């Protein structure tokens, strides 16, 4: 299917254009009268914003999702979220597999690039695993949600809410049907909090980690290997992802708990247990999920600074989350530590991480920071307001988080366009956009003399 396009466009360009095509098709459908609850046309810019936030699984909205859209419009949004969460190429390839179409080598190469993998081995099997795992977890999430939503909203509406929020949480979209206050009414409901956190982490941890953990558990039971040896057999990617994720979630929750403990605008009025749960939820949702159990505008500035950091990092590679990814930050941290210790190679768990991976991590971080600064200045010039809120908004958009300090609803045309671009870049990756406009990349066949420079 993709091999004809692949002759004219690079895989990065096909993926970027695929997301763009889905966004515009979604926008055209959403702006039609039968997509809105009142039967009127939705302004195209608002439909485009909603389609972008859905496909890019961000969660920032300029119209109230629960009130503005009809049932048809909400179903379209749900489809766009699922499409964006799994990835355009993965989704289309999955449909081809179900239809029995042949997956060509060009399709496999494109899929490899879309999933950011380094090998074609077992690619189709991996894709089947992603689809199967996604729908199983989303169904489990929907069933768990139904224990609360069905009693609260009735059988039909409660089941619909359960399905929608399970997909939205797993895909790290953060779009809800509960109204302007998101999950704030459920801040003291541990069941909703922990189900949502489970779905967010499941989607954001990365599909490769899923498969590796499954293989490890299977190996443990089949071959009766000890837990220690089973854990040692985990891939380096999995180990770094799990450790970094745990540190960021638990460390972030602890700092939020301490910083916001007496803040009556956030968690100050809650019981001790509810404060722990709310802090943990905030730390998890900052990993590009976008649900909120309390108003972000009430956060203290010290906490906002922490939120910038956690949002910018985001989730893990080859998953539904955005941000520069946990492995990117871990690679930079470990590389810095190695340099400080005077080591010439980056060795982690007795494995040598290639220098190319370190330079890629540095490039991803620097390009993302550059886009963030540019977008923040542009949005501030276009909309004004508090720079704290502006940076929160742009970080949330570029990292596809979806949290806002009540700034999104105030955006005008230019501000909406800037955030749309931020969400799109955040989903495909800022560095992918740089590559998009640089198809004719040349290999360095010429070697020049070495000369050092002083840094630091």
TrEMBL record:
Per the record, the domain of life is: Bacteria
State the UniProt keywords alphabetically. Cell membrane, Ion transport, Membrane, Transmembrane, Transmembrane helix, Transport
- Point out the signal peptide segment: none
- MF-aspect GO terms: monoatomic cation transmembrane transporter activity
Subcellular location(s): the record lists: Cell membrane
The GO annotation for biological process reads: metal ion transport
**How does the entry describe its membrane topology?**
Multi-pass membrane protein
Give the CC-aspect GO terms. Answer: plasma membrane
Question: Pfam families of this UniProt entry?
Answer: TrkH
TM ranges: 12-32, 44-69, 75-99, 129-148, 160-179, 191-211, 240-259, 305-324, 361-382, 417-437
What protein name does the entry list?
Potassium transporter KtrB
Q: Which organism is it from?
A: Butyribacter intestini
């Amino acid at each position: 299917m993709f091999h004809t396009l692949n002759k004219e466009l690079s895989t990065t360009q096909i993926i970027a254009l695929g997301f763009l095509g889905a966004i515009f098709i979604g926008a055209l459908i959403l702006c039609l009268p039968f997509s809105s609850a009142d039967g009127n046309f939705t302004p195209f810019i608002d439909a485009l914003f909603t389609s972008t936030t859905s496909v890019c699984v961000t969660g920032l909205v300029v119209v109230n999702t629960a009130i503005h859209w009809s049932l048809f419009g909400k179903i379209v949004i749900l489809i766009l979220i699922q499409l964006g969460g799994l990835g355009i190429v993965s989704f289309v390839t999955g449909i081809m597999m179900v239809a029995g179409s042949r997956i060509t080598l060009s399709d496999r190469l494109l899929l490899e690039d879309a999933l950011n993998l380094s090998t074609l081995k077992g690619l189709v099997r991996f894709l089947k695993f992603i689809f199967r795992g996604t729908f199983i977890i989303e169904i489990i999430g929907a069933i768990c949600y139904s224990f609360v939503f069905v009693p609260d909203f009735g059988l039909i509406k409660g089941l619909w809410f359960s399905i929608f929020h399970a997909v939205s949480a797993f895909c790290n979209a953060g779009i809800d049907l509960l109204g302007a206050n998101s999950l704030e009414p459920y801040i003291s409901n541990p069941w909703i909090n922990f189900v949502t956190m489970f779905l967010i982490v499941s989607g954001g941890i990365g599909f490769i980690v899923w498969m590796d953990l499954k293989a490890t558990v299977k190996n443990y039971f089949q071959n009766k290997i000890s837990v220690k040896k089973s854990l040692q057999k985990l891939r380096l990617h999995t180990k770094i992802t799990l450790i970094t994720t745990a540190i960021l979630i638990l460390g972030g929750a602890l700092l939020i708990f301490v910083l916001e403990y007496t803040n009556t605008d956030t968690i100050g009025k809650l019981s001790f247990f509810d404060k722990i749960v709310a802090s943990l939820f905030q730390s998890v949702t900052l990993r590009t999920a976008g649900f909120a159990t309390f108003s972000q505008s009430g956060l203290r500035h010290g906490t906002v600074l922490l939120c910038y950091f956690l949002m910018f990092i985001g989730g893990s590679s080859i998953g539904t989350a955005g941000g520069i990814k946990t492995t990117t930050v871990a690679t930079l941290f470990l590389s810095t530590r190695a340099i400080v210790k005077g080591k010439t190679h980056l060795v982690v768990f007795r494995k040598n991480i290639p220098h190319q991976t370190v330079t890629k991590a540095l490039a991803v971080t620097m390009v993302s920071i550059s886009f963030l600064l540019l977008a923040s200045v542009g949005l501030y010039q276009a909309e004004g307001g508090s720079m704290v809120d502006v940076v929160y908004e742009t970080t949330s958009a570029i990292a596809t988080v979806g949290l806002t300090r009540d700034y999104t609803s105030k955006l005008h045309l230019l501000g909406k366009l800037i955030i749309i671009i931020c969400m799109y870049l955040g989903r495909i990756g800022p560095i992918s956009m740089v590559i998009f406009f640089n198809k004719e990349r040349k290999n360095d066949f010429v070697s020049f003399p070495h000369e050092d420079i002083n840094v630091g």
